[in-house]
Design brief:
It is a single chain. The protein is an alpha/beta fold. Helix content is 39%, strand content 14%. It contains 6 helices and 5 strands. Strands 2-1-3-4-5 form a 5-stranded parallel sheet, with helices on both faces. The longest helix is centred in the middle third of the chain and has 13 residues. It is globular. 34% of the residues are buried.
Protein backbone atom coordinates (compact mmCIF):
# COMPACT_ATOMS: atom_id res chain seq x y z
CA UNK A 1 0.00 0.00 0.00
CA UNK A 2 1.08 3.59 -0.54
CA UNK A 3 2.15 5.94 2.28
CA UNK A 4 -0.76 7.78 3.90
CA UNK A 5 0.47 11.19 2.63
CA UNK A 6 -0.37 10.07 -0.92
CA UNK A 7 -3.93 8.90 -0.18
CA UNK A 8 -5.66 11.99 -1.66
CA UNK A 9 -3.64 11.85 -4.87
CA UNK A 10 -3.98 8.07 -5.21
CA UNK A 11 -7.75 8.36 -4.77
CA UNK A 12 -7.82 11.08 -7.44
CA UNK A 13 -5.82 8.91 -9.84
CA UNK A 14 -7.90 5.80 -9.11
CA UNK A 15 -11.07 7.75 -9.87
CA UNK A 16 -9.55 8.90 -13.15
CA UNK A 17 -8.62 5.33 -14.04
CA UNK A 18 -12.22 4.21 -13.56
CA UNK A 19 -13.49 6.86 -15.96
CA UNK A 20 -13.89 6.13 -19.64
CA UNK A 21 -10.99 7.82 -21.43
CA UNK A 22 -12.30 7.26 -24.93
CA UNK A 23 -12.18 10.99 -25.64
CA UNK A 24 -9.27 13.06 -24.33
CA UNK A 25 -11.53 16.12 -24.27
CA UNK A 26 -13.64 14.42 -21.58
CA UNK A 27 -10.76 14.72 -19.09
CA UNK A 28 -11.21 17.59 -16.62
CA UNK A 29 -7.47 18.19 -16.97
CA UNK A 30 -7.24 18.28 -20.78
CA UNK A 31 -4.65 20.89 -21.69
CA UNK A 32 -6.56 23.05 -24.17
CA UNK A 33 -9.64 23.20 -21.98
CA UNK A 34 -7.71 24.31 -18.91
CA UNK A 35 -5.66 27.20 -20.19
CA UNK A 36 -2.32 25.39 -20.44
CA UNK A 37 -0.45 25.23 -23.70
CA UNK A 38 -0.49 21.65 -25.00
CA UNK A 39 2.62 19.55 -25.57
CA UNK A 40 4.85 21.27 -23.08
CA UNK A 41 8.05 19.34 -22.39
CA UNK A 42 8.78 18.73 -18.73
CA UNK A 43 11.95 17.43 -17.13
CA UNK A 44 11.07 15.83 -13.79
CA UNK A 45 14.02 15.27 -11.48
CA UNK A 46 12.58 13.02 -8.78
CA UNK A 47 14.02 9.98 -7.00
CA UNK A 48 10.87 8.50 -5.41
CA UNK A 49 9.18 6.04 -7.78
CA UNK A 50 5.62 6.63 -6.50
CA UNK A 51 6.08 10.39 -6.88
CA UNK A 52 7.38 9.87 -10.40
CA UNK A 53 4.23 7.91 -11.27
CA UNK A 54 1.81 10.37 -9.66
CA UNK A 55 3.45 13.53 -10.99
CA UNK A 56 3.99 12.08 -14.47
CA UNK A 57 0.32 11.15 -14.69
CA UNK A 58 -0.81 14.60 -13.60
CA UNK A 59 1.50 16.30 -16.09
CA UNK A 60 0.47 13.98 -18.91
CA UNK A 61 -3.18 14.74 -18.11
CA UNK A 62 -2.28 18.39 -18.67
CA UNK A 63 -0.93 17.48 -22.11
CA UNK A 64 2.75 17.51 -21.17
CA UNK A 65 5.49 15.24 -22.44
CA UNK A 66 7.50 14.12 -19.39
CA UNK A 67 11.11 12.97 -19.16
CA UNK A 68 12.23 11.60 -15.78
CA UNK A 69 15.67 11.76 -14.20
CA UNK A 70 15.98 9.91 -10.84
CA UNK A 71 19.05 11.85 -9.65
CA UNK A 72 20.31 15.39 -9.80
CA UNK A 73 23.35 14.32 -11.79
CA UNK A 74 21.18 12.62 -14.41
CA UNK A 75 18.85 15.62 -14.53
CA UNK A 76 21.74 17.97 -15.22
CA UNK A 77 23.08 15.65 -17.91
CA UNK A 78 19.64 15.51 -19.55
CA UNK A 79 18.94 19.25 -19.41
CA UNK A 80 19.65 20.72 -22.82
CA UNK A 81 17.38 23.75 -23.07
CA UNK A 82 14.65 21.84 -24.92
CA UNK A 83 12.44 21.54 -21.85
CA UNK A 84 9.70 24.09 -21.21
CA UNK A 85 9.84 23.61 -17.43
CA UNK A 86 11.42 21.51 -14.71
CA UNK A 87 9.84 19.71 -11.78
CA UNK A 88 12.65 19.44 -9.24
CA UNK A 89 12.69 17.64 -5.92
CA UNK A 90 14.74 19.27 -3.17
CA UNK A 91 16.13 16.18 -1.44
CA UNK A 92 17.79 14.01 -4.04
CA UNK A 93 20.45 11.32 -3.72
CA UNK A 94 23.87 12.68 -4.64
CA UNK A 95 23.60 16.37 -5.41
CA UNK A 96 20.58 18.19 -3.99
CA UNK A 97 17.88 19.99 -5.91
CA UNK A 98 19.34 23.27 -4.67
CA UNK A 99 22.65 22.52 -6.39
CA UNK A 100 20.84 21.37 -9.53
CA UNK A 101 18.77 24.57 -9.66
CA UNK A 102 21.85 26.77 -9.27
CA UNK A 103 23.67 24.81 -11.98
CA UNK A 104 20.75 25.12 -14.41
CA UNK A 105 20.48 28.85 -13.72
CA UNK A 106 24.21 29.25 -14.43
CA UNK A 107 23.87 28.22 -18.08
CA UNK A 108 22.22 30.37 -20.72
CA UNK A 109 19.60 27.75 -21.69
CA UNK A 110 18.47 27.50 -18.07
CA UNK A 111 18.18 31.13 -17.05
CA UNK A 112 14.49 31.50 -17.92
CA UNK A 113 13.08 27.98 -17.71
CA UNK A 114 10.53 27.74 -14.87
CA UNK A 115 11.67 25.45 -12.07
CA UNK A 116 8.86 24.12 -9.89
CA UNK A 117 9.98 22.50 -6.68
CA UNK A 118 7.98 19.61 -5.29
CA UNK A 119 9.10 18.38 -1.92
CA UNK A 120 7.79 16.90 1.29
CA UNK A 121 9.75 19.67 3.08
CA UNK A 122 8.63 22.52 0.82
CA UNK A 123 7.41 24.88 3.54
CA UNK A 124 10.55 24.71 5.64
CA UNK A 125 12.89 25.26 2.68
CA UNK A 126 10.92 27.68 0.49
CA UNK A 127 13.17 30.73 0.96
CA UNK A 128 16.30 28.66 0.38
CA UNK A 129 14.80 27.17 -2.79
CA UNK A 130 13.77 30.56 -4.19
CA UNK A 131 17.30 31.86 -3.49
CA UNK A 132 18.70 28.84 -5.40
CA UNK A 133 16.61 29.65 -8.48
CA UNK A 134 13.33 27.82 -8.05
CA UNK A 135 10.31 29.80 -9.31
CA UNK A 136 7.74 27.95 -7.21
CA UNK A 137 7.91 25.46 -4.35
CA UNK A 138 4.95 23.27 -3.41
CA UNK A 139 4.45 20.22 -1.24
CA UNK A 140 4.32 16.76 -2.72
CA UNK A 141 2.40 14.94 -3.75
CA UNK A 142 1.28 17.80 -5.95
CA UNK A 143 -2.34 18.84 -5.73
CA UNK A 144 -3.66 18.66 -9.31
CA UNK A 145 -5.50 22.00 -9.20
CA UNK A 146 -2.59 23.82 -7.58
CA UNK A 147 -0.10 22.48 -10.12
CA UNK A 148 -2.49 23.33 -12.97
CA UNK A 149 -2.81 26.90 -11.68
CA UNK A 150 0.98 27.28 -11.53
CA UNK A 151 1.38 25.97 -15.08
CA UNK A 152 -1.35 28.30 -16.33
CA UNK A 153 0.64 31.26 -14.98
CA UNK A 154 3.78 30.28 -16.88
CA UNK A 155 2.09 28.83 -19.97
CA UNK A 156 -1.31 30.41 -20.61
CA UNK A 157 -3.34 29.03 -23.49
CA UNK A 158 -3.14 30.94 -26.73
CA UNK A 159 -6.67 29.92 -27.66
Amino acid sequence: MYPKQYAHTINFLDAKTRKDHAKKSDSPLAANENGIQPQLKALMIEDEKICQIIQRRLLEDFGCEVTIAPTGEQGLAMFNGDFDFIILDINLPGISGLVVSKAIRSISEGRNVPIIGLSSVADSHKAECIAAGYNEVISKPADAEHLKTILQVYFPSEG
